[in-house]
């Protein structure tokens, strides 16, 4: 598109959920409560993992990383989502939009890789228990954790650089509540074919490769469980990975629906609704899944709480 004599846009306006003004206040309250609960829940999981020595194992170290990730994953989008529920004009600068774009997709890619690593850890624990401590030692666990973060932040780097070179000449309204890829491309007056193709390829490769690796690990886990002779043993084995499998199903189900498709097929209304699930709802649901369905975390929470109460009682007596 010829950009000559066109005004350069310096900021975008989020439309958010302006199409349903009668629900905006309700949505604000709901999103705020969910966001705060998610922050508290994930922070609590991190605190428990750090404080309880019995949880200093690869499974819970990865869980602590996931909880830390979820805090920033929601924080990348929700603080801009909330104002769109109260105001008709919520703006973001071009540089701020590109920054949000990068961090959002970095966190998403990191979560994909981390979930695949967690599935591999469960595969080693169930299918190769005698060598699990050797193949997933503390040092290797930390390397896997660091690799997940590094890989996640490298994956969207080139598409982000290409996005930063796009020209935006108007309109300036983003039909979304954060700087997602397709809404940004729709507003550019530059040729976006290369960046769309590269972004779509990178997103699909990260999502599908990590998803297939996760399913490969769980395929072996299922066959191992089937071969177990005792029903009680099968039940106990399933319980060790049920929480993670539930999180995997919810997360991959939404992001594959949202991002593994040709750009021309994008629907803004459906995109916003689906985005609410993996940006707002899923991080909160994950905390409930990992606490309510995990006996070790619940036990550690009760133990930590009892210690804090005892310490508080002693301090009160000394006082």
Describe what you observe in this structure.
The termini are far apart. The chain is mainly α and 319 residues long. The protein is globular. The chain contains twelve helices and three strands. Helices cover 74% and strands 3% of the residues. Helix 1 packs antiparallel against helix 2, helix 4 packs antiparallel against helix 10 and helix 10 runs antiparallel to helix 11. It has a three-stranded mixed beta sheet.
List strands and helices in order, with pairings.
Blueprint: E1 11-14, H1 24-51, H2 58-75, H3 78-84, E2 90-93, H4 94-127, H5 132-135, H6 138-154, H7 157-164, E3 173-174, H8 181-187, H9 193-227, H10 231-259, H11 268-292, H12 295-318
Helix pairs in contact: 1-2, 1-3, 1-11, 1-12, 2-4, 2-6, 2-11, 4-6, 4-7, 4-9, 4-10, 7-9, 9-10, 10-11
Q: What average pLDDT do the residues reach?
A: 86
Shape: globular
Number of H/I helices? 12
Quaternary structure annotation: single chain
What is the CA-atom radius of gyration, in angstroms?
Answer: 22 Å
Q: Give the beta-strand count.
A: 3
Tag the structure with descriptive keywords.
319 residues; mainly alpha; 12 helices; 74% helix; 3% strand; globular
